[in-house]
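Page 42, continued from yesterday. The earlier attempt failed because a stray header line got pasted into the input along with the sequence. Redoing it now with the clean sequence only.
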Amino acid sequence: MNRLAQATSPYLLQHADNPVDWWPWCDEAFAEAKRRDVPVLISVGYAACHWCHVMAHESFENEAVARLMNDDFVCVKVDREERPDVDAVYMTATQAMTGQGGWPMTVFATPDGTPFFCGTYFPRANFIRLLGSVATAWRDQREAVLRQGAAVVEAIGGAQAVGGVTAPLTAELLDAAAAQLAKEYDETNGGFGGAPKFPPHMNLLFLLRHHRRTGSARSLEIVRHTAEAMARGGLNDQLAGGFARYSVDGHWTVPHFEKMLYDNALLLRVYTQLWRVTGDRLARRVARDTARFLADELHRAGDGFASALDADTEGVEGLTYVWTPAQLAEVLGEDDGRFAADLFGVTAEGTFEHGSSVLRLARDVDDADPAVRARWRDVVGRLLAARDTRPQPARDDKVVAAWNGLAITALAEFQQVAALYASPDDEDANLMEGVVIVADGAMRDAAEHLAAVHLVDGRLRRVSRDKVVGEPAGVLEDHGCVAEAFCALHQLTGEGRWLTLAGELLDVALARFAAPDGGFFDTADDAERLVTRPADPTDNATPSGRSAIVAALVAYAALTGENRYREVAEKTLSTVAPIVDRHARFTGYAATVGEALLSGPYEIAVATDDPVGDPLVAAARRHAPPGAVVVAGAPDQPGVPLLAERPLVDGRPTAYVCRGFVCQRPVTSVDELVAQLG
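This time it went through. Structure tokens are written below.
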């Protein structure tokens, strides 16, 4: 009997009709394995995973394979996005046993959850052989299997342990991390490493802040080159905006087509901050289009942001997105078809499968002649209208708290920067204004959803779907990303309740997740006990729980003046500093927060009756050093500590700048404020 029909996870629901007798992750499944004296087969994946779909089609939908699974195992299906704690434990085991990881993840475990054999994708024939071998070993070589499991648990316990060497995250260490990234940088294609190539969003955020602190031209050039290469490549949807998960090649041409909320949120922050620092037209356009993608494609009214768009359409990867020269001509006519083929690098040979091509921007448009830009915009609109008539990829509508937090923070930053550069003379000023309006609505809607649905009895839940909250408890990254988002909303709106909610989440994290050495576990002390308690300090596809909570602690301390939160942040960063020193590419968000702490961070309050249009507010946001907090509004506004006892001077709007518990004199002119911000 398949038990997934009542699941809230779209990934589990995809498997609800399999002939496999799937269980969701639950105590009852392991009790059943103990009763039958059989191993547990744990299959972990997520809704937008291409190879998860392949393995499902090849094996889990096959009656003969399902019979083998049902006869000799209790089969448990896990959505890694819904249960990141379960995923983290068994991914560490998989990496320990095989030297690599990924999804689908296939784990064989004892009835108490101890893993003894791990792998990823298995073709059907290999999987059938594996099922027989594991079943035989369980019956005939039980002691060896149990010894193997004990060794794996010991290994993953060490890999996930808290404690160990600590060190201050100093300027010298961050400078060395930037230098290490510069050495590993791909000078030709941008980014780091070869195929498959992932967008290094957190490293780029760190390098932008490093540039702001040190003036490093090298750090800024790495960001600019990588940002342009990604934006012009097939990784970026040239018609509708939004970035794919990664490039299958080393030069950003052909993507793995799934679009994840977390990637687009973090990349929106990169392009927004690059736009703020440089005024770059490409960065401006890509930030706008990414914000529009989040608001139009992933947000649902009255709900949060969905997790992802699938890699496949009707079982075919890229079906929605690729083009041939003939298809361009059919939609645009011969003349504009040739123009589009040249502009987007569409050739007869193709860059993808069967002579089709992924659109990439082979020519510059942002600084081109106005007539060229007008023609480009017209072609994009017509192609997008035609593409919308094609079958579309499925959307994973599951709302993940942490990823929604990342999106809220990114959209809050985008709106602040968009306000700085707003000009009615821009040729696309109306488009930018429209994107800002819909992005603001989506951001606020998502924040209200998190506050109303995901907060249950003072505790944060991980996921929801269709406005119904799921059972999985929030993990550390959820608390950190959502608290940071609420701090960002507080700065954007001046509303005190968001700061209050952020503080409540951080207090829960300190009470339930903190480790004795100054680090944090990824799960609460009253969460379900797994074979080991995960505590991963590295930043991977998303910020680690540890980095996320530190970012929120730093922002909250600056906004409230409560230094105990800053002290915890500094102590926690000291547990990550040795990893920053050795593996800069996997500690990008921690290093980003480290730059904020080195900078102060600055606390900037602007007492004004016009928090939207006051030139002092614009100057504060334009020139704020890395990690600075900026709050504007009427003096002594309830719930806004930075505005307490900060009056207007001589009836004029006044800026107050503090750093490290030292405040400078109040100023009333833009020039004076800019001078104080250095």
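Notes: DSSP finds 24 helices and 21 strands in the chain.
Reminder to self: strip header lines before submitting.
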